[in-house]
Automatic annotation (TrEMBL):
One Pfam entry name: OCD_Mu_crystall
Record-linked SUPFAM superfamilies: NAD(P)-binding Rossmann-fold domains
Xref: InterPro entries: NAD(P)-bd_dom_sf, ODC_Mu_crystall
Coiled-coil region list: none
Similarity comment: family membership: Belongs to the ornithine cyclodeaminase/mu-crystallin family.
Superkingdom of the organism of origin: Eukaryota
Protein name, as recorded: Rossmann-fold superfamily protein
GO cellular component terms attached to this protein's record: cytoplasm
Amino acid sequence: MEKHIKGEKCERLGRSVEGGGGFEGVRFKASECLEVAVRIGDVISCATNSEVALVKGAHLDLVGSFTPSMRECDDDEAVRRGTVFVDNETAAVEAGELVGAFERGVMRKDEIAGELVELIKREKVGRRSEEEITAFKSVGSAVVDLLSAQMVYEKYINLC
C-alpha cells in the first residue's frame, strides 16, 4: 500500500511513521502535485483552515474547516454529487462546505445522509460502491474523543 503526502514536513512525517504504529506495509510518498495525489488516492484527509476549496476526490475526510467562511472541497464533487455524512448536527451550521452549499441551493440540510453515531451503530450505510463519492465533515465531536481514548486504553491494556 502506498500513501501520497505533500510537502517537506509531510515527507519527514511519513518517514518517521513508516513501518510502525499500525502503518506496517504502508509506504508514504511525497507528491509535488496535489491534483495527481488526489486523483490516485482512495481517501483524502483534509485538515486545513483554507477559505478556498482544495480537493476533489472519491472519499473526503474534511476535518480542518470549522467556520462558515472556511472550506476544503468544492460543491460539485463532494456536495452535489456525493453522499455527505457529518459528525453531528452542528456541522450544518458551522461547516463552510455545507453552509455555502445550502446558501447556493446546491444541497439541502435534509440531504445529509447521516451522522457518525448512525454509521458506527450501522443504522446508516456508508459507501455503497467504489465509484460513489462520499464525504465526512467533522467540526468536532465528543464521540470521536471517546472512541480515541478507548482505542488508546485498549492498546495499553493489550501491551501490559
